[in-house]
Amino acid sequence: MANNRNDYVIEMKEISKAFPGTRALDNVTLQLKKGEIHALVGENGAGKSTLMNILTGQFPMDSGKIFMGGEPVRFSSPKDALKKNIVLVPQELNLIPEASITENIFLGNEIEKGIMIKWKNACKEAERLLEMLEVSQIDATQPVKKFSAAYQQLFSIARALTYSPRVLILDEPTAVLTSKEKESLFKAMRNLKNNGTALVFITHHLDEVMEQADRITIMRDGRLVRVVDVGDITKDEMINQMAGKKIEKTKRIKRKVPDEIFFEAENLSRKGEFKDVSFHIKKGEILCVAGLVGAGRTEIFKCVFGITRKEHGGKTFIEGKEVEINTPVEAIHYGMGYVSEERRHDGITPGMSVMENMMLPSYGKLSRNGLIDYKRAVSITDDYINSFKIKTASRDTLIKNLSGGNQQKVIVARWMAKGIKMLILDEPTRGIDVNAKGEIHQLIRELADNGVAVVVISSEMEEVLALADRIMVIHRGNISGYIYDVDLTTQEDILKVAFQ
Q: Same domain, yes or no, for 389 and 267?
């Protein structure tokens, strides 16, 4: 028997949307049932975010219709969607760092009595919502900036719950969470589902899709490919339908690494972050840095790159010569590059073009008598767009309009164009689809093959095992050990080293 329109909390029917130079959505239909977890999957650039931005009133649609409970609706602003209890938790954190947890959770949706905000009641309610996500014993009057990205993601989800969502959209909600935090989130998702909420679950972690979703909508290049019950598809079939071709998993390639050390750190410390950390990295080596979220991996390499300052006593050496690196400018001068885990916040300048983002650090060497050789900049940009297979309408496209995977390629190309000798990549494939992930891995290997010392900080054990020439394991701000024979190593072996 065919489904009635009234069977769906939301039905987006034949939605189309075009931007300059690209057709983002082409007659896409999405149907959400009450009390289901509905996974929305596809490669970066497939149109998932555009579809959700239309549902939440961020973008107008060019054509199509939206029905809610069988009745036609149109959302011309996010406020319209919130009034209908349709709530999006975006991939990128959008909290106010200086404001308290409670203020962030109830921002725009305050508990009021007359003209007064009842902060005491709001604080209790914030703590209750966080307990639903199994975040307990936290003082909700503390400023958000004191907490890790993982906690901030949970605060964002708690904010969404204040709207009693009929439809809750979670965009890459597990990207920064530990295994324990993920389980707490999944438990909360199941509770919401059992209470009748329709959840849209957008993720590139397909194991999570197979474990948590009831139904799956697969998209590719702005089109609907397939809607399927989770029990009627395998993970490999899903990957192939997302890409439109058979995708091979990234396979480990054993590499021969030269013996020449490029960078060495001796007894680096920062109070409350890490203590007496000493390590080295060789030219042409891929050193993967593993450990649990919050272990201090990012903090160590922010210090190495001069984003934060080391305490007195620590030393750094480049090619055997002691150097002082107190700012990123000094790190770049010594041939180092850095790709932040917060790509959109720290990695790109959203309002600038692909070329400007790629060429920013290189304009100095392309300048003569104060004039930039734009012809040379255009040539370099086009070469990297072609060689890195960056999907963009043109070099003049704003980088914010590219998918996450293509933005990441632009950032890596930025440092290659600069001619760096060491590159630090923090969570380089977070929020990136399986096909783009393989392409990023290939670029990392090419960098190392060209003699660049590459540091990869990653929470994904599969990625670490696929890329590493050597693994450095961090636990509670200390190096707990190294793994040299990566071919014979399992994920469990890495965890054992972390906790030994």
A: yes
